[in-house]
Amino acid sequence: MKAAGLHRRQLLKTALLASGVLTVFPIRQPQAQALRDTKVVVVGAGISGLAAARTLADQGASVVVLEAKAHVGGRLRTDWSLGVPFEVGAGWIHGPSRDNPIKRLADAVGAKTFVTDDDSLTIFDAAGDALPDDRVKKIDTDWERLILRIDEALESDDRRSLRDAIATLAPQALNDPGVLWALSAYTEFSRGGPIEDLSATLHDDDEAFPGADAIVVSGYDKILAPLAAGLDIRLFSPVSAITLAGDGVVVRTCTGEMAADYVICGVPLGVLKAGQIAFKPALPAAYRRNIADLGFGSVTKIAFEFAAPFWDLKTQYFGTMTAPKGRWNYWLNYRTFSDSNVLLGLSVGAYAPIADRMSDAEMAADALAVLRGVWGTDVGTPLRTLATHWSSDPFTLGAYSYPRPGNRAAQFDDLGESVGDRLFFCGEHTIFDHAGTTHGAYLSGLRAAAQVLEEVR
Ligand SMILES: Cc1cc2nc3c(=O)[nH]c(=O)nc-3n(C[C@H](O)[C@H](O)[C@H](O)COP(=O)(O)OP(=O)(O)OC[C@H]3O[C@@H](n4cnc5c(N)ncnc54)[C@H](O)[C@@H]3O)c2cc1C
Whose CA is nearest to atom 50 of ligand 1? Predict the structure, then answer.
C-alpha cells in the first residue's frame, strides 16, 4: 500500500519521530492500583477501546467493555476460512519500525510478518496489456511529483479538493490514465476517500512510521489477545445512550443500564455520524459539527481462491486500469507469501460504496470481469470467495476517516477531547496524525486512558 513517499513535510516528520523528538503517547507500565475505586465503561472493543480498557484495568480500575458485535477487534479482524489470513479490515502494519506500537504488539505475540514490496508491481492498461517496466516507474514518479507540486503550490487554508486543485494546477494529469490510476490505487486507498472529496492540503499531511509495510501472515488480529486478556468484555451489547448524570455516567444497552464514574466512547466515526448513540446532554455544537464535517469513506475487498494460478507467482501486486476509477484496481498476490492461489482485489474511492452495496455474487462477477479483462479465459471459477461490505456494516458504516476540503487537522484531534470531565473519546478518527490506521487507533486509546488517569489524580 503506497503512500506519497517524496512528501517533504512527511519526510521531516518521519525523521523527527525516528529520532524521538516528537513523542507519541507512551505505553505505560502497570502501576500500583491507582484507580482501585474507579469504574469505567468502554464502548466498543476495537483496538482503541481495548487499548484504553487494558491501560485502565492495569491501573486497578474496574472496567467493563460493551461491544455491539459478536467479536472483539472491530475493523481489525482476520478470517481464516480460506486457510490463509483474509484481513477483513486492516491488512498491513504501516511502517513496522521499532517506534510503531503495533509492531511492538506484533512482536509481543510472536507474530510472523512479511514485508511487502510496493515496487514488485505489474500494471495492466484498459485493454489488458501489461505496461513496460519503465512506464510503470514513470507513473510512480509522475504521481509523486504531482502530489509534491500541489503541496508546494497551495496555501494551508486552501479549501479545494485534491481533484479540483489538480484540475487548476496540472490539468493534463487528469488525462493521463497512469496518473489517474495511481491517484486512485495509492492516494484514495491510503486515505479512504475519493480525490473529489479529499482535502488538497491535508490528504498527505499526516505522519508515518518508517519502513516498508508488512502483512501479518499469522493473522493481524492476534495482536489483540494481550490487550483483551482478562477484561470484562460484554459482546452483543450495542450502546444506545450515554447520559452524564451528576458525578457519574449511565450507559444504556439493549439489556439495561450501567452506571460508572467515566465512559470512554470508541465507536467509529460512521456510527457517530448516524447518531446511533444518544448523548445526554447533547454533545457540544462544535463537537457535532466536527462529526458531520469530517469524511468517512469505504474500502472494499474481495478475495478469490482459484484451483491453479494463472498469474505470475513472483509479482507482489497487480494494477488494473479500470473504469470507473477505483473499481478493483489493485490486487495482492498471496502466492508471494503463501502456497494459496488467492488474489485479493480492492475497490476504493467513490467506487467502494458502490461495490459495498452489491451482493457477494454481484461483487464477484464485477471483480472477475476485471481479472478476465487481463487474463481472459484462464480465469476459471473461483473455489471460494470472501467479500467485505464496510459501509453497510451497521456498527461501522465505512472504512476509515479522511480530511474533506475545508477541514482542519484540529477537527480530528478535537474529537479526542473530553466532554466535561466524565466522557472521553478514542478511535482512529480522533488523531489526525495517524488517522485511518491501527497504530493511530491504538495511540488514541492510550490517550483516552491517560485523560481518565489525569482526571482521577
Ligand atoms: C477495509 C479496511 C482496510 C484497512 N487497512 C488498514 C491497514 O492496512 N493498516 C492500518 O493500520 N489500518 C487499516 N485500516 C484502519 C484500521 O482498521 C482502523 O483504523 C482501526 O482498526 C480502527 O480501530 P477503532 O478502535 O478506532 O475502531 P473499530 O475497530 O471500528 O472499533 C469500534 C468498535 O465499536 C463497536 N461499536 C460500534 N457501535 C457500537 C455501539 N453502539 N455499542 C457498542 N459497540 C459499538 C464496533 O462493533 C467496533 O468493534 C483499515 C480499515 C478498513 C475498514
Answer: 90
